[in-house]
Design goal:
Helices cover 26% and strands 37% of the residues. By secondary structure, the protein is an alpha+beta fold. The chain has two domains: 106 residues, no CATH class; 204 residues, no CATH class. The protein is elongated, with a radius of gyration of 29 Å.
Length: 370
Amino acid sequence: MATQVTNYQCPNCGGPLRFSSEKQVLVCDYCGSEFTPKQVEDFYAEKDAAASQALNELEQQLDTNPEEIKTEWEYSGSEWSENMRVYSCPSCGAQIMCDENTAATSCPYCGNPSIVAGNFSGGFKPDYCIPFKLDKDAAVRALKDYYKGKIFLPRAFTDENHIEEIKGVYVPFWLYDGDVDADVSYYATRSRSWMEGDYRVTRTDHYKLIRNGSVSFVRIPVDGSSKMPDDHMDAIEPFDYSELKPFSTAYMPGYLADKYDVDSKQSLPRATGRAQRSSLSAMTATTGGYDGVSVASSRFRLSNGRVRYAFLPVWVLSTKWKDQNYLFTMNGQTGKLIGNLPVSAGKFIGTFLGIAAAIFAVGYAVLTFM
């Protein structure tokens, strides 16, 4: 059975609304009207209340005047995938098929953005979101800038590499808070040398260092989507959390969104690991003044842990060159972009040989002079 979805339509002309990353409001491309997320929420809250009242009245009429309900034929062919869902587009009535984790999408027939409201209910509703600040054109420009200065990039790549798909996605993230108490011991050495006659004497002193302290962490991000590469999501950090907004589906139109499929407990080891590494780095920063320092033992204790659920903006760009796909992701708030690039074997070998020749020439000149 198809589940009803919502798409935000202009209260003035009925055209589809989309969220403008530039203006930070919902805009109608048909009549040019603009609405704040709060205005749209209030408008649709009134519509939902009126629709609920009308539905209740209809159900009361059906209870008093029951009619025969015809049974529809059911298809008994191949089994339906448990991971797929079908939704009805409110604008054109078409059936939209998408993944069970999809929370915001667009109709492939009329193009109107749609919100799968059920996927934002209960434990799947985020606490916060950061609205997109950069649009699709900014993502394309960032990709072209990313090519610059890459000396091993094949020359034809920038000309022949075509963008297959570009989409703005609200990626589910877990944001962890907590305090870490750290106890770390180090082995350290300090050496000094001097001349005694014809001999150089070196003295090395050995030390054991003890460091302990507490480090507080706020909003350690871990993405909750198995579809997104973890290394990409880590690389496009940081996000500016001062721009976190209480979650509203009014920020979703025009973008895709997925609910999490990796829960907070499954994501906890990544957050804990990041907190421990940062705590260790903070302790190690206090061990200056020695020639060598190595960790002997460490112990970390986490307390006051808390987790929040948020949607963070990411542009995903898929490109293709020589039948191979390349994925790039960009922070939709700051513009930081990361991705994998091909390496020109000819350029790499040429550069290596050039460096080797230069070293050989310098060495030959020194030997000849000597």
